[in-house]
Amino acid sequence: MSDERPTTTTTTTTTTSSYQRPAGAGQRPTGGPGQRPSGGPGGQGGPRKRRPFQRRKVCRFCAEKNLTIDYKEPRTLRFFITERGKIVPRRISGNCAAHQRHITEAIKRARNIALLPIAANHAVS
Ligand SMILES: [Zn+2]
């Protein structure tokens, strides 16, 4: 009496195995409930595309000691502003924090004396 336990699991397994599906018909490896290939704004941990060009990891002012940050040299500062005259952020330019601070200060000074553009329509050829 105690040997036989009528569990639903055993019954279901027996029913499934006796059903005999055709092989390969219903077995999908990734049959999740509605998996979208690329979701909307909530980026879930998928393989993100890495930026192809990741050059200049080191700060170029730390690398070259003779390179100086001077507000009177707009040629040097021009590497760190965009076409529209914006200052390139540190994660793009690769500067260290100290040098980025100097760069920002120099660019702002150079803007004041019109060596660098402040806005896009200020840019001269
Ligand atoms: Zn540096």
Determine the mean pLDDT.
Answer: 75
- Low-pLDDT windows of residues: 10-17
Structural class: mainly alpha
In this entry the ligands are: zinc ion
The name of the CATH superfamily of the domain at 60-122 reads Ribosomal protein S18
This entry's quaternary arrangement is single chain
Total strands: the figure is 0
- Measure the end-to-end span: 96 Å
What's the CATH first level of the domain at 60-122? Answer: Few Secondary Structures
Give structural notes.
The radius of gyration is 32 Å and the shape is elongated. With 125 residues, the protein is mainly α. Residues 10-17 have low confidence and may be disordered. It contains five helices and no strands. The site of zinc ion (ZN) has 7 residues, from α2 and α5.
